[in-house]
Hints:
Elements: H1 4-7, E1 10-14, H2 18-39, E2 43-48, E3 53-59, E4 67-71
Parallel strand pairs: 2-4
Antiparallel strand pairs: 1-3, 2-3
Amino acid sequence: MTNPLEAEWTCFVEANEPHLIEENLNAALDVALEHAMKDGRFGILVTRHGHTRFTVALSADVPYGQTMEENGPAS
């Protein structure tokens, strides 16, 4: 059974400069990977919510050891 608290780790990334978006996404991915490796059951899902807004989250819908990207609803 999935522990919802472990699967709900999410980091919000927002920046206006492309280099800052890349730096912040890379930092969020590093932290997400650390959390995912502790449990060994969740993959990482990166969702684009617009040109400058993203979330990086652990997801039971993504196989462990994988990172997937998706476009969320733009706001």
